Amino acid sequence: MHDQNIYDNEVFFEGYRKLREQPSAANHLVEKPALFSLCPNLSGKRVLDLGCGYGENCREFLHLGASHVTGLDLSEKMLQIAKAENDAERISFVRMSMSDLSALDGTFDVVFSSLAVHYVEDFDQLLAQIHRLLADGGIFLFSQEHPFTTALRKGPRWSQNEDGTINHYNLSDYGIPGIRTTTWIVDGVIKYHRTFSDIVNALSTAGFQLEQMLEPLPGADILAQYPVYQKCYHKPDFLLVRAKKCCV
Amino acid sequence: MHDQNIYDNEVFFEGYRKLREQPSAANHLVEKPALFSLCPNLSGKRVLDLGCGYGENCREFLHLGASHVTGLDLSEKMLQIAKAENDAERISFVRMSMSDLSALDGTFDVVFSSLAVHYVEDFDQLLAQIHRLLADGGIFLFSQEHPFTTALRKGPRWSQNEDGTINHYNLSDYGIPGIRTTTWIVDGVIKYHRTFSDIVNALSTAGFQLEQMLEPLPGADILAQYPVYQKCYHKPDFLLVRAKKCCV
């Protein structure tokens, strides 16, 4: 079990903060709108946010009517910022690893997770815990790095034409699930690659019905401002899934 | 509506026949075993096979206990061979396009389709017809070319190292669904690209629960005999889906 806490690494943390604060970050432009487009009605709902980071989404869930939000993260630094910037009476922040939720109590109507499940090695166990924590008919809504992104064990990721435009994405090792040690801000960041069928079958086996899947792409307005995102039409950045708890 | 009947093109048909009869064909080695691994119990079941081709699978479904099998194909040439080689008392062959099944009567417990749905432009309409033809709780089991295969609008598909081994797959235009005019045996073969999320959402919207998804890969025994298939670990050849009819 790799209980990675890269977000408490000083260098990573500062680099990540700068990256996330850029208005051009794909998280803001593409992932977040897609996540909220799949959001069920939160009015009066108990919400759990796995890998809540700065807690921005926790606060947004309250605005959308949630009765209570629990934000969970492994990183002490993240939770300090969350408490300083996004605390509220009906939000609780909990420090715990997503890799083992067995100590978490409570029942939730909606479980969210934004760009965190690819850090978890044992997806089956995570889904079993989420299933346990959800009320009947409850929703699990998550985003993750796209499987084409997590697949690679070596670079370069993109092939360019002579004029600098992207020609294609260099897809390799998609069919080999498992650990990936990558460089992202710092060396040695550990993620886990799962294929589409791995993800779909794990959800089905854990007792979830897959309701909707998105591989969101930047629209014309975003492309006009940031032409670099044209390459996402070769290889999307994100995968989002909304699944409903059903029988096991 | 493109009601393509490429299988009645003489040149295509002969080329296809030679290709399929090779023992090294990926259909025999990878797709067919994967399809039958997902097959529900057929004992006493009414089966429909969409794009039945030579009718080999129809006969196999009878052996697996089906009470009756309807094999449907648009190609007169294919159906001639099917009737000559795989006819049986409890098999009916029907000439009809998968693009419009509205004239087809009957109720089926299982609908199969092997490597044919990527020829159909309107997937939503196809799924609506299959939903209509299935009994409650009935199963739709299909294989298709992998979305990484259908994505490309230009070649080359693979990047090789200097020693001739495959380095990666040149993935492009994955995020742009729609028509693809490709060369496969002959020029001008028309297929339709759909992303994973297109496929998953179409099934969900049509009233199917996705039970299992496979992107099958050749095992060690196949690789030992045909090392060329190592490249499938970068990019699988096939996608298979088993879905159950539920409420709309």
TrEMBL record, chains A, B:
InterPro entries reported for this sequence: Methyltransf_11, SAM-dependent_MTases_sf
Methyltransferase type domain boundaries: 48-142
Pfam families: Methyltransf_11
Keyword Nuclease tagged: no
Keyword Transport included in the entry's annotation: no
GO biological process: methylation
Keywords: Methyltransferase, Transferase
GO MF assignments: methyltransferase activity
Gene3D superfamilies xrefs: Vaccinia Virus protein VP39 (3.40.50.150)
Domain of life: Bacteria
CDD domains per record: AdoMet_MTases
Designated name of the protein: Class I SAM-dependent methyltransferase
Source species of the chain: Pseudoflavonifractor hominis
Taxonomic path: Bacteria, Bacillati, Bacillota, Clostridia, Eubacteriales
